[in-house]
Structure formats: structure tokens, C-alpha cells
Design a protein that fits this description.
Elements: E1 2-3, H1 20-27, E2 34-37, H2 44-51, E3 55-60, H3 63-68, H4 70-76, E4 80-84, H5 90-96, E5 102-108, H6 113-116, H7 142-148, H8 151-162, H9 167-178, H10 186-194, H11 208-218, H12 221-235, E6 236-246, H13 249-263, E7 282-284, E8 290-291, H14 294-299, E9 307-313, H15 333-337
Parallel strand pairs: 2-3, 2-5, 3-4, 5-6
Antiparallel strand pairs: 1-4, 6-9, 7-9, 8-9
Length: 340
């Protein structure tokens, strides 16, 4: 699905994305520049880019997000194009619309507030709905994984992607419960997790980490991020800016490692021949990640864990993509579906 015009939809309340001011400052948005919002969502970053005079290509794998952006497309007067696609293909999308290089890319990694608020999407245990979690609606759902993955694979995934210290107990409880009846709703899964991960005052919900792990797995989010960073490297013009907002350590580690490698800030062993050292493709704009201030966190609790990393593209040629080197070694979704 592509939107580049048409009737306006209801605007609704304007969405203010996390770390918006810092993102715009680091992108150095210029009037007439071309920018790509790889995670369009509710359109917050795209609207701000448009307000600054930019032309924007917005990408989202969620068809609902694209459809709900019709109103903003109409308002933009030809300066906004929305495309239903994964942001790992953002360079191909930009070229499809006639841009061999662009001025900036912004990525807001993870699930959107809009998706969390829709019970029928199955992202949140706050509402009892189908255990789905798919951003684009294709491929195995979270219910499929819970039904077919082995106890060992469930334990590995929940520990690695959810950083859940009780992952083995959670996996064991899931396998035991699914023998009695399929776990097909968010409420049913949350209840099972709650039998082994107990609630504590002022702590996150017991099911939070398990739900995070399943969502990341089902949507292949870490591979998508690694491939998206390489795609941004390929399409940004010299001096173009990349800004990435992440919300947990797994995502931030991938962004940090990629930019450190591409900027040369990790250093080089003295044993490496001088001629084999590749020229940096990015220049870091900050040595450390930028976090939200107290005022923003108070206004938007989601900003509490947000981190922004940004870099400027150099004139060096893009390097061959090597997404696998950035990812943890885990059982694949295909393997899990085979119940190996």
C-alpha cells in the first residue's frame, strides 16, 4: 500500500514522539531536504519534519498505520509519501521514488503506543485479546510460537530477548499449561507467567519480559534493525544524518555497536595491516546516548527508557551488510515452528 494523496482522514489528537526535539536537532532538518521516517506509526516525527519544510517518505509495516496517515498525506500537499514496507528496505523505497540519496533517516524502534492500545493486536496484557503480536499480519503469531516451540527454545528466547531471569520456569509453565489447553489469548499467557514470576510493588508487570521476547521474535525486530542500519548507510548522502531511538538494551546495543564500528570509535588492533582498515562511514554526533529529561518523562512515561544515538554520514563508500554479526545467536523462528 502506498499513499501519496487522496482524501483526508480524521486528524485526531496529535502524537508527540519521544525525544522529538533532540531528534530534530541532530537531523539538522533543512527546508526542502528529503527525509525518511522508517517507523511512521502515528506520524509524530513525519509531521515535525514536514513542519520544518522537509519532503518525507514514511514507512511502516503496519497497514493500519499507513491507512490512518491519509489525513497527514492530504495536509502535506505532495510532500509526504507513505509506503507499507519494512524499514530494512528503506533504501529501495527511497530509490523507487526517485531519490538516489537522502538527507536524513529517523528510526523509532519497537512497538508503537497505537499498537499497544489495540486489544485485537495482542501486544499488551493490559487488554485480553488474541495472542497475535504481528506488526504486519504475516508469518507465525505469538500464539503459534507458544504452541509449537520446544521448552528449551522458549527458555532461550525468553531469557535472551526478554532478559527474564526466570525464563526456564516460564518456559516450563507454558509447556505444562498448553498440554491442558491452547494458550491463544494475552490474558491466558499472562496468567501462566504470573504463576512463576510474582508481582512486586513498584515493579513491572510479571509478564512484561515474556511478552517483549515473543514480540521481538515474531517480528524479527533485531534483524530488521541491523538490516535497517545498513540500508540507511547505503542511502544517506555525505553529511546526511541518522537518528535512532531505542527503548531497551538489546536494541541500543545493536545501534551502539554498528555506529562504533562504522565510525572507527572502537579502535583498531595494532596487528591489523594499515591498508586493510576501512574508512569510517559515519561520524558520531555524541559519544553517549541521549536520554529524555525529567519533564519529558513526567509527561510521557514511555520516554523513561528511551535512548537516542545519532551520526552523520561521511563520503566513504557503504560497507557490505553484515547484519548477522550484530545479532545474538538464537534459534530461528522457522526452527521453532518445526518444533525441533
Amino acid at each position: 500500500m502506498t499513499l501519496d494523496g487522496g482524501p483526508a482522514a480524521d486528524k485526531g489528537a496529535r502524537h508527540v514522539p519521544v525525544l522529538l526535539r533532540a531528534v530534530l536537532e541532530h537531523l539538522e532538518v533543512r527546508d526542502g531536504g528529503v527525509y525518511l521516517d522508517g517507523t511512521f506509526g502515528a506520524g509524530g516525527y513525519s509531521r515535525a519534519l514536514l513542519d520544518a519544510g522537509a519532503t518525507v517518505i514514511g514507512i511502516d509495516r503496519d497497514q493500519k498505520a499507513i491507512a490512518q496517515g491519509a489525513g497527514l498525506v492530504a495536509e502535506a500537499g505532495g510532500r509526504l509519501t507513505l509506503v507499507e514496507e519494512r524499514f530494512s528496505h528503506l533504501d529501495d523505497v527511497a530509490r523507487k521514488f526517485g531519490h538516489e540519496s537522502i538527507d536524513g533517516v529517523v528510526l523509532d524502534i519497537g512497538v508503537s503506543s497505537m499498537q499497544l492500545d489495540e486489544a485485537d493486536r495482542g501486544f499488551s496484557f493490559r487488554f485480553d485479546g488474541p495472542l497475535d503480536m504481528r506488526m504486519g499480519g504475516e508469518g507465525p503469531s505469538a500464539a503459534d510460537v507458544v504452541a509449537r516451540a520446544t521448552e528449551r527454545d522458549l527458555s532461550i528466547i525468553i531469557a535472551a530477548l526478554g532478559e527474564e531471569r526466570f525464563a526456564r520456569l516460564v518456559a516450563k509453565a507454558i509447556v505444562k499449561e498448553r498440554l491442558k489447553a491452547p494458550l491463544t489469548t494475552t490474558g491466558a499467557l499472562a496468567a501462566v507467567v504470573g504463576t512463576v514470576v510474582h508481582a512486586r510493588p513498584d515493579r513491572i508487570h510479571p509478564a512484561t519480559r515474556t511478552f517483549q521476547a515473543l514480540r521481538i521474535l515474531v517480528n524479527e525486530e533485531l534483524a530488521e534493525l541491523a538490516e535497517g542500519l545498513a540500508a540507511a548507510e547505503r542511502i544517506l548522502k555525505p553529511g546526511g544524518r541518522l537518528a535512532v531511538v531505542s527503548f531497551h538494551s538489546l536494541e541500543d546495543r545493536i545501534v551502539k555497536t554498528f555506529l562504533a564500528d562504522r565510525s572507527g570509535s572502537r579502535g583498531t588492533s595494532r596487528h591489523v595491516p594499515a591498508g586493510s582498515v576501512l574508512a569510517p562511514t559515519f561520524k558520531l554526533l555524541n559519544k553517549r546516548a541521549i536520554a529524555a529529561g525529567d519533564a519529558e518523562v513526567a509527561a510521557n512515561p514511555r520516554a523513561r527508557s528511551a535512548k537516542l544515538r545519532a551520526a552523520a554520514r561521511t563520503a566513504a563508500p557503504a560497507r557490505p551488510a553484515d547484519a548477522g554479526s550484530l545479532l545474538p545467536r538464537l534459534p530461528s523462528l522457522d526452527e521453532m515452528m518445526k518444533g525441533r
